[in-house]
Amino acid sequence: MARMNMIQAINSAMDVAMGRDPKVVVFGEDVGYFGGVFRCTAGLQKKYGKQRCFDAPISEGGILGAAVGMGVYGLRPVVEIQFADYIYPAFDQLVSEAARLRYRSAGGFTAPLTVRTPCGGGIFGGQTHSQSPEAIFTHVCGLTTVMPSNPYDAKGLLLAAIEDDDPVIFFEPKRIYNGPFDGHHDRPLTPWSKHELGEVPEEYYTVPLGKAKILRPGEKVTVIAYGTMVHVCLAAAEESGVDAEVIDLRSLLPLDLDTLVESVKKTGRCVVVHEATKTCGYGAELVSLIQEHCFYHLEAPIERVTGWDTPYPHAYEWDYFPGPKRVAQALKKVLED
Amino acid sequence: MARMNMIQAINSAMDVAMGRDPKVVVFGEDVGYFGGVFRCTAGLQKKYGKQRCFDAPISEGGILGAAVGMGVYGLRPVVEIQFADYIYPAFDQLVSEAARLRYRSAGGFTAPLTVRTPCGGGIFGGQTHSQSPEAIFTHVCGLTTVMPSNPYDAKGLLLAAIEDDDPVIFFEPKRIYNGPFDGHHDRPLTPWSKHELGEVPEEYYTVPLGKAKILRPGEKVTVIAYGTMVHVCLAAAEESGVDAEVIDLRSLLPLDLDTLVESVKKTGRCVVVHEATKTCGYGAELVSLIQEHCFYHLEAPIERVTGWDTPYPHAYEWDYFPGPKRVAQALKKVLED
Amino acid sequence: MSRAPLQLHIPEPKARPGGVTDFSGLRIPPAGVLARPAVDAPSEQLRDYAYGLIRVLDDQGRAVGDWDPKLDADTLRLGLRHMLLTREFDERMVKLQRQGKTSFYIKCTGEEAVAVAQAMALDAGDMLFPSYRQQGLLVARGCPLVRLMNQIFSNTRDPLKGRQLPIMYSEPDYGFFSISGNLGTQYPQAVGWAMASAYSGDTRIAAAWVGDGTTAEADFHYALTFATVYQAPVVLNVVNNQWAISSFQGIAGGERTTFAARAVGYGLPALRVDGNDFLAVYAATAWAAERARSNHGATLIELYTYRAAPHSTSDDPAGYRPADEASLWPLGDPVERLKQHLISLGEWDEQRHATLLAELAEEVMSQLKEATSYGTLGNPPPNDPGSMFEDVLKEIPGRLVMQREQMLALREGN
Amino acid sequence: MSRAPLQLHIPEPKARPGGVTDFSGLRIPPAGVLARPAVDAPSEQLRDYAYGLIRVLDDQGRAVGDWDPKLDADTLRLGLRHMLLTREFDERMVKLQRQGKTSFYIKCTGEEAVAVAQAMALDAGDMLFPSYRQQGLLVARGCPLVRLMNQIFSNTRDPLKGRQLPIMYSEPDYGFFSISGNLGTQYPQAVGWAMASAYSGDTRIAAAWVGDGTTAEADFHYALTFATVYQAPVVLNVVNNQWAISSFQGIAGGERTTFAARAVGYGLPALRVDGNDFLAVYAATAWAAERARSNHGATLIELYTYRAAPHSTSDDPAGYRPADEASLWPLGDPVERLKQHLISLGEWDEQRHATLLAELAEEVMSQLKEATSYGTLGNPPPNDPGSMFEDVLKEIPGRLVMQREQMLALREGN
Ligand SMILES: Cc1ncc(C[n+]2csc(CCOP(=O)(O)OP(=O)(O)O)c2C)c(N)n1
Ligand SMILES: Cc1ncc(C[n+]2csc(CCOP(=O)(O)OP(=O)(O)O)c2C)c(N)n1
Ligand SMILES: [Mg+2]
Ligand SMILES: [Mg+2]
């Protein structure tokens, strides 16, 4: 099996999808000849021609509007928004159009598009290259929201997203493009090539949307995370010595609630972790669902470990980023409570 | 004291604000000569001149962009977005700009603007004249989010919003513009003129942002709501005979957490109600905070009664709208649990 | 350098209620004066068309000049029929709205030539991305009125299952895209559809419509940008009916230039057309369609017309414009003008006209009878609330299955 | 009618790495040929300026024609100094970025005339809404470089308290608006500021900058729409430096017309200017400023230039354009051209130039010394993390007070 980092795995997913289905087209800012500022589309234009992988005007709303129209025609557009922070200008086309089209036309028209976008901090990108806006999409019915934590899942989920007949927002935590960053910014990064989830088949496969994965089984507390935070949580569990069960959601919506409920019923305690700001983050929904479904099993309040309710401050990146120490503290807290 | 409906109270707030401060300007689609499609700005252009209350192009993003610039200059723009459903095109200017300007400039520049926008359903407006998108704003740090439930509060909160030195989103539940609609769509609506909260002083006063109000004291269960749902909850409490304490948030962010926590600690049970879709709605944040702060006092899972996770369907309006029956059912459920 | 105080300019229409609108300042060139350029003419050579006004029917109802599409009498009569049917349908629906049979309606009175002539000039396979005021497209494409009525009444046969506000049609079988409540979003979508068609080596083009007011939305800019960059085969129409609810077109930026001129800014050709002149609209649309279909890219057409109707049944224009403004509109009424043209050709007369009107009224009534047999708004109440959980996604997700159960249980409980 | 298959057009630049860019097709009119119109000329009479190119400095370095702003030698030398200082500053900062003293930097090499000449042509009180490539505005307005360095280093004196990406300056005291990471948002904000100034009867105008690529954003359209509707006193600049990261200007819609032409579509005047010609930039800006200040509304200026630098320190243009493209740019280098002009006037020589360069290098170094004494990125680590909770709102809200406590406790715990 090949070793790939997340960039290569994502690139491979698009390559495989384009090879299988001429309806798949890829476009976005700088994705054509250059292959994307993070190189995720490198080589695709050369291989499939400039009509199938091309640069778009700096116009996120236009990119989404055009993608909806292409989807209506029958294509499967896969568009890149250069940074998740720049998805806001496309918000109306995503929320009022892509997400609502099937419903309002009673199935007469659909928008089977995929939006790929790098998210999250930890790269000294400052407040407009570090955001994690997933919760504003999970509030919108009609959208599917995915965030992988490793190359294997990234490829399989992206292929599943492209094949999905409804719009999917595919968040790529850019801090783990090259390796499973665990929040220890002062230590060297292990590259994916040294990690088992860096083993990625060259060929086609999918990872189903809506299935979480237990990455570390445990008995005392359930830790729910996605994206970069999965690795932070694994480190926190390891370092704190807490017998924590760490679950990687992989797909936020659809949500694999059963897996979560089963785990929390077993452990009786739960910590929810994300990098996005706390208030009304996706963690709030997770907490709500778990208290609803596991109320009588809970032995302590569910803790949220998240980004603070401020923009992402450039120089205070590591005071902002919810690192392993904060997660470990929360693990201990729920055990003490 | 004068009797006003919510439209008149909102109009009066702007009138008073404009009278007191020449820096207050009002604009938006159809708000000038015509006075707004809901008549909230009626008479203001005539009274203050067309430079102070004027029509804007159909360009929600442009309206917000211009308002930010005016705020930077030193004015206090009050803009109307004709329906909350049409706020999405302005999302980037609201989230990346208005909300972040003070922070990113370290206080050097600010955007003291107010966005007024009618929200909510119950008027057969279909999916694009019925939405309640408050939760996508409460997730954004830097924004203040307000939703009044009656004329008195509407005027006082709007004046407070206009005076606030940061951007405020002021949601107007259009279903209660004329009277306190309690969800019984088959019964005649009581007009505000027959309601004590329809008594509104003509002159200046403010209702502080961030203070909830207990509208109905009770011992058995705490009901948290805002906007139209406040009246639905009052009706549900009345009709179910449940000894419920009904709290009107008035301001979602800042949130008056103390009042909520105190109440839930007393009652041990809680129902959270809103009209917006459930998943990642503001209710999720309320549930999370309450389970965090009142865990050991809770005797049953906190229930959420919300709009379903679908767009607002025109003909099935009353199957969608969370009416008093659904709320009453939830009240009984938490008591039984 | 001048240091006088700056002043803020706020545009104002020519007249307000109580006043009299003076349209004499409008520059309306005579019919027939503009030449019809080659469809592959470079856009730089076409700039003047953004400032002129293509007109074919002259004041005597004769078709004159280069742009005369030379339609045969049957086609003209069909156009007249479609326009009259559209008008009759509008009138009837407004009456029903007043009777509470539906919550809402939007008329296109005075603008019938736009949708009808454009639908006729386009191919049947071309994809239409309309706003809410082009019901004439569906009439001209032969969509049964009963389908539209079923949607308007949200009845048991509503093709949109009661989900949409009345008149927000979606008719895939008639190449008519789902109307959006959010203004303008269909514009870049049409461009994307056209790009997809070009990518696929198809021969079908797209067409889209927005109003003058809607040109101020981002989507207008997105569409023109993408259309020029990728030479998308699309006809982009701006229906300048002078009003956007209560705002006159100066508030959308129409004071200082034409809406057609927007296209010039992107290097796209624009045709400015007398929107009440059936022949001119037909000819301009045919030109733009041919240009697009032969890989010369997009054209913007400004259809210069007047919104004779209120904005919608929720609106009363008496609050913001002189009551008689429509009747003073110097370009007349599209139906009347086509009728006079046919009469002047000897292909029509008052008698036949009266017969046709009666026939159309009958047609509307008979379809209405059928539609009302399936119900009107809330009468009987729509009977499949569970369906509201369908089509959010292709498969109903687990949480919606649960919500549906909850909702149905609650209903039963009554 | 043709029924050949449609084709999707994807624009391509003249050359890619390994190739040679042939600029001979560019239509570059000689200097001095365009007349300078009256500042109150109606926009219809100014359309040609959107397609021409205002040039003052001819190939011999002489100032020719109507647009010559007739600046005295001191002013010219000051302009040269500002441009050179900007360039020196850029070079030094890139070196420091390579040394890891900051995470990021953006140069404006080859575009110095844009910001410097424009700042000099505007009044000190005018409000500037820049993009990230107009550091020359701050240099020309006399903002101490040490302030910019402090921001770049996120050090203890960082005026933005470590919150912003390097070079995202915000300098209220110099009338320089907070740079946004989201492209283009400042454009309608500048219009709003200008509207507020006009509303207030002020005499100050606004100016804003975006790149060629950014014209495709919604905010560009919003700005032009609002500017034309309300006749806002604003100068809207498009810096067409041919590239937007790796995308050439054809991807932004520059293949079929100029960016200046966009303004024509809104009935606004546009001036297309040789952006590497200090005198032309100065003159065009002065004209637009005077027009705005005398209540004749907005002007769009397209500054035709070339991004000689990589997009940023994160970018390597070798991946998408020929390495020597900058040196082939037919409009030369703005610094070199102004220098030659001064020499040809007998107001400058190589000796003085060398002395000035040394002086500026010294100035940069001495300010750098001061700045580094306050720290560079992470060295020492910034020492007031609690401050990250300030300025989210005017008053720190309760929940942030709690989060701050939590954060500080966690830090202590280490
Ligand atoms: C994004 C958005 N903003 C505002 C509205 C409310 N609205 C509906 S129609 C309309 C006026 C549109 O005017 P115009 O584009 O000229 O079309 P016309 O009604 O004249 O055909 C407005 C403001 C909306 N539907 N969508
Ligand atoms: C809304 C948004 N989309 C995308 C980006 C990423 N981005 C930063 S600079 C840039 C290119 C801008 O090109 P141009 O406007 O020509 O300015 P230049 O860099 O040439 O000065 C892009 C795409 C962004 N910052 N904001
Ligand atoms: Mg209109
Ligand atoms: Mg550029």
TrEMBL record, chains A, B:
One family name in Pfam for this protein: Transket_pyr
InterPro entries hit by this protein: THDP-binding (IPR029061), Transketo_C/PFOR_II (IPR009014), Transketolase-like_Pyr-bd (IPR005475), Transketolase_C (IPR033248)
Enzyme Commission number, as recorded: 1.2.4.4
Key word Kinase present: no
Superkingdom of origin organism: Bacteria
One annotated GO molecular function: branched-chain 2-oxo acid dehydrogenase activity
Sorted UniProt keywords: Oxidoreductase, Thiamine pyrophosphate
SMART domains (UniProt xref): Transket_pyr
Domain Transketolase-like pyrimidine-binding intervals: 4-179
GO BP terms in the entry: branched-chain amino acid catabolic process; response to nutrient
Alphabetized SUPFAM superfamilies for the sequence: Thiamin diphosphate-binding fold (THDP-binding) (SSF52518), TK C-terminal domain-like (SSF52922)
Keyword match Oxidoreductase: yes
Cofactor(s) required, per the database record: thiamine diphosphate
Entry function: The branched-chain alpha-keto dehydrogenase complex catalyzes the overall conversion of alpha-keto acids to acyl-CoA and CO(2). It contains multiple copies of three enzymatic components: branched-chain alpha-keto acid decarboxylase (E1), lipoamide acyltransferase (E2) and lipoamide dehydrogenase (E3).
Protein name: 2-oxoisovalerate dehydrogenase subunit beta
Species lineage: Bacteria, Pseudomonadati, Pseudomonadota, Gammaproteobacteria, Nevskiales
UniProtKB/TrEMBL annotation, chains C, D:
Keyword Oxidoreductase: yes
Enzyme Commission number(s) of this protein: 1.2.4.4
GO biological process: branched-chain amino acid catabolic process
Reactions it catalyzes: N(6)-[(R)-lipoyl]-L-lysyl-[protein] + 3-methyl-2-oxobutanoate + H(+) = N(6)-[(R)-S(8)-2-methylpropanoyldihydrolipoyl]-L-lysyl-[protein] + CO2
GO MF, any single term: branched-chain 2-oxo acid dehydrogenase activity
Pfam family, one: OxoDH_E1alpha_N
Record's protein name: 2-oxoisovalerate dehydrogenase subunit alpha
Species of the source: Stagnimonas aquatica
